[in-house]
Amino acid sequence: MVDNTQVTKTISLEDYGIKNARVHYQLSPEELQKKTIALGQGVESSFGALAVNTGEFTGRSPKDRFIVKDEITEDKVWWGDINIPFDPEKFDSLYNKVTNYLGDKEIFARDAYACADDNYRLNIRVINEYPWSNQFAFNMFLRVNDSELESFKEDWLVVNAPGFKADPSVDGTRQENFAILNFKKKIALIGGTGYTGEIKKGIFSALNFVLPVYNNTLPMHCSANVGEDGDTAIFFGLSGTGKTTLSADPERKLIGDDEHGWTKENTIFNFEGGCYAKVINLSEENEPDIYHAIKPGAILENVILNDNGDVDFSDTSITQNTRVSYPIYHIDNIQEPSIGENPKNIFFLTADAFGVLPPISKLTPGQAAYHFISGYTAKVAGTEAGVNEPVPSFSACFGAPFMPLHPTKYAEMLSRKMKDAGVNVWLVNTGWTGGPYGVGNRMKLKYTREMISSALEGKLDGVEFENHQIFGLSMPKTCEGVPAEVLNPKNTWADKEAYDKKAKELSTFFKQNFSKFEEYANEEIMKGAPVD
Question: Of residues 35, 143, 243, 371, which has the active-site annotation?
Answer without folding.
Answer: 243
